[in-house]
Amino acid sequence: MSDSGKSIESFSGEEQRYEPTPAFSAQARIKTKEEYDKLYQESIESPETFWKRETSELVFRKPWDKLVDWQLPFAKWFVGAELNITESCLDRHLETERKDKPAIIFEGEPGDTETLTYTQLHQKVCDFAAALKANGIGPGDRVAIYMGMVPEVVIGMLACARIGAAHTVVFGGFAAEAIRDRINDCGAKAVLTQDGAWRRGKVVPLKATVDAALEGVKSIEKVFVYRRMSAQDCTIEMQEGRDLDWYEAIKAADSSLGVEAEIVDAEHPLFILYTSGSTGKPKGVLHTTGGYLAGTHLTTKYVFDLQEDDVYWCTADVGWITGHSYIVYGPLSNGASCVLYEGAPNQPDWGRFWNVIEKHKVSILYTAPTAIRAFIKAGDEWVDKNDISSLRLLGTVGEPINPEAWRWFYQKVGRGECPIVDTWWQTETGSIMMTTLPGVHAVKPGSCGVPFFGVKPAIVSSEGEELRPGEGGLLVVQNPWPSMLRTIWGDDERFKAQYFSDIEGAYFTGDGARFDQEGYFTVVGRIDDVLNVSGHRIGTAEIESSLVAHEAVAEAAAVGRPHDLKGQALVVFVTLKPGFDGNAEMEAALSAHISNEIGKFARPDLVVLVDSLPKTRSGKIMRRILKDVAAGREVQGDLSTLEDRTVVESIQARFS
Ligand code: PRX
Q1: What integer pLDDT is reported at residue 435 of this predicted model?
Q2: Residues 621-643: pLDDT tens digits?
């Protein structure tokens, strides 16, 4: 926990409430507060009854002997059960009318479309599962996926799950170095990639980046390459013996290999997803099969009030947890029709999202506040050009939503009648933990709402004492829940230290929050050294360790400052080694260094070259001072531990 974690200022803003319309509530899956209260109470007091009923439509080949085995901090859910998650996401629908229902409605950035029904998606997953098996990949192996937003990325993830291999999807914005670190950390045996992806009318050369990432990597035996591009748009090199064309590999394999799903234990690893924490090394968050399925299935169904004829669009990238849970596993296990959009929100112009909604008659839109702020800036006319009246429910995720963005989303996009669910959760939680239910709860803009079934959040002081309504403190979860992370891949100690050591007996989220008299939670933001830049989670320690690896850098400190569009922006302060010049070229070179080592999305807004950094007498960098300076604020708080005050003055002078 950072030194700023003691207490968080609380405030009570003006309180506006938006009730669901009677028409929405009348058709909703859960219609009244009494129903929610009863289900919530059951989920806490009789979880066996609750989860048995609520998972009854999912495919468990062997039922569980015990619901949960909780050896703090290690949880096992659905103990003794056996299943394959793809049977719940695919096979079970083939027995019903859903077999011809669109599962994926793909919209390519250039405007090409492709629809895969549940029958077709199932076939493609079985075919690719056969190709993986034929190439020696099997249960317990890890497979890295570095792809864009194309149907094959979903097929690849599900094919891994079908054969019992764990996938680790690396967001397509990460650079070669970051891919290599992740592959080495989990010892992946194969990579799934594609030649290139469309982004803002340009080709992102994914395969070439994989080639660079794999230099010196020993564990990778095969690279499967899906060809999205024509040869004119993107040329690639295929390495003999290692690289296989996706569809050629399918042709060469015995197709019967993928038909039978590998039945695994409920606690079998499903995927590893790397995320940033407060140290320099990303953490491989491990999710397992049964609990993750239960959590994502139930939240998708109730939070998005999913109905059979909905067209559902989650705009996240599949490289983040939102894409895993709410593009792939949650919606497909519910038999939903999901839009998958390949490209940027402003390609060819800022009307693209609204155009996709009109074209595919999207009824549920789940997006991020940072995107909403960008749309506001682009202007209302882009929305007005399209008929988006098919929308009936809106959702946001990833960061606190500011009231201005909320109101615009509600009025302009939702016509003042679509409920908005503001969903709070994390890579680690696997599925939505706090939200309102759209047919039940009034929404208070800026507050994410109440706990989802089975979740017991609390606000505590840094000593672990439970706080009262209105008091700001640390957000913890007091009980285990099915889709919680099981550990950090290969590092149980770090798992314990990171999440279960700050507050005794509880999972510590890293967030600061408060709750009100009615039990609504408001998440203020991270209290550790993790930033949220345009909805991307970035560890400042990761940025700093990348910078100090540069030959010119002596010391580095990375901090966030408020930004109108991105939520937070990254500012880095650097001291150089003797013999290096602090000029504009150096600033640009350090910015490019971060982009090359981590990815373009982590490029700082500002690189500030300074003579020294503010430190305590014991030599600890005082980042809170740098945060104030970067934000253009007066430096707050106690400065008595500062070793040399003139350092602060000289840094401040750089900003005036
Ligand atoms: O600080 C919280 C913020 O995003 C963090 C989790 O980031 P990540 O693991 O990348 O997952 C993002 C998508 C689930 C949280 O610790 N956060 C997420 N949702 C909200 C939020 N902050 C406020 N309101 C939200 N609805």
Answers
A1: 98
A2: 999 999 999 999 999 888 888 88
| Predicted pLDDT at 10 | 39
Atom of ligand 1 nearest to the CA of 524: 23
CB of 481 within 6 A of ligand 1: the answer is no
Point out the ligand 1 atom lying closest to the alpha carbon of residue 316.
Answer: 13
Enumerate the CATH 3.30.300.30 domain ranges in the chain, comma separated.
532-654
> Cα-flanking dihedrals φ and ψ of residue 569, to 5°?
-125, 155
The second-level CATH assignment, the architecture, of 89-101+113-262 is 3-Layer(aba) Sandwich (3.40)
Every domain of the chain with CATH number 3.40.50.980 lies at 89-101+113-262
- Could you tell me the CA-to-CA distances from 387 to 348, 355, 357, 359 in Å, in that order? 18, 8, 8, 9
* Closest protein CA for atom 26 of ligand 1: 424
Strand partners, 273: 285
Q: What is d(CA 539, CA 279) in angstroms, rounded to the nearest whole number?
A: 7
Q: What pLDDT score was predicted for residue 280?
A: 77
Q: Are 496 and 505 in contact (CB under 8 A)?
A: no
**Superfamily designation of domain 3-84+270-526:** ANL, N-terminal domain (3.40.50.12780)
Residue 488 burial class via C-beta count within 10 angstroms: exposed 0-12, middle 13-18, buried 19 and up: buried
Entry pTM? 0.94
Enter the CATH code of domain 532-654. Answer: 3.30.300.30
